Amino acid sequence: ELLASLWPDDFGAHYIYPFTDGQSDLLLRIVEPKALRFVARRITMEPLLRLVEQGLDADLLRSSMRRTLPLGSARMLTQAELPGFICASRAMNRVIEQIHKIRSSDVTVLITGESGTGKELIARAVHTGSSRRFNTFLPFNCSAAPRELIESQLFGHRKGAFTGAVESNRGIVRAAERGTLFLDEVGDLPIELQPKLLRFLQEGEIHPIGESQPLQVDVRVVAATNSDLERAVTEGRFREDLFHRLNVIRIQVPPLRERREEIPVLIDYYLKQYQQESAKSEIKLSQEALDLLSVYDWPGNVRQLCNEIRRIVAYSEPGAAATVEVLSPEIVQMTRQNKNKPGPSPDAETLEDWHEATRGGTLAEAVEELERSMMRDALHRSKGNISQAARLLGLTRKGLYLKMDRLNLET
What we know:
This protein is α/β, with parallel strands linked by helices. Helices cover 47% and strands 11% of the residues. It contains 19 helices and eleven strands. Strands 4-5-8-3-9 form a five-stranded parallel sheet. Strands 1-2 form a two-stranded antiparallel ribbon. The protein has a two-stranded antiparallel ribbon with strand order 6-7. The chain is globular, with a radius of gyration of 31 Å.
């Protein structure tokens, strides 16, 4: 019946399928379903069925491998469908892996990092990768709301609960029901309001102003801050129990200077985006301008880079190559100062040791050995002081730690 459904009665072509059963090669010749050999059962379907079974098993195995292999950043970002979410560095790839690991959980997430690193974009990625992705993602900036109104804005109030409450307000928390609430700059939340936030996180209930009974809510919280919450706890500006309740999963977003390989990709993305917004086209960067942007430290991180590209597009004519003249003066000045600054140089003995140690090796091995030698020298001169050693090497403290970890170098 299967063959009859696959081949019509007038089908007369012959197909040969090689098959190995471990003892001999079998040839299965499939002919017209009504042929005498088929009707008389002088051929067997078993080799064909075993061949099909093997094919299905192989396909299932390939599908299983595709599901269980770690997802690459590009694939995960495609699933997240977040415009502007660019990941082209190992540091950001670790962030993406963290987001992927908690995709099936509603656990509270604390995102930390410098201003302008894209913490809200990370929060949106957490939401988009979760089971709540079809519901609301609602951001709330804790530092932008007036101090006297922030409780009402967050948890709501009843009509007439206080002077000026001319109508009831559900509040931000209830507006994010079954979705994700993003609390940006959570470190700036007033100390007197922190117990209510703690109870909301622990019990899933809020108490709007003027209501006699608390209300149950189903909201996931993702918080972010660019301040040092541990220091705020020590100084009494942030409750320790609230900090631990927020700090269940912590995602540290690296600054742009620690993922420089993403700078050209970001430049290309925002150059295209702002050209479309300005109805311009074919604007490119000269090689010198691109080099200066690539080595700049970007204290304002991605936000500063976006504004700089917007400036370049505004100043440039369609079809022109943007030169150094259209860059911000502080970028040109600071970058050229850094390029002219003399860097640390190992002494003759260190160079001789490095040359001997890398003789006959690859270029990558030689570079790693040189980095290792210079870091040892800097740590020796600074007597193990990481901050001082980082300054000697022209690195950040975090950058030095990352290199030491990569090269298995101990202090």
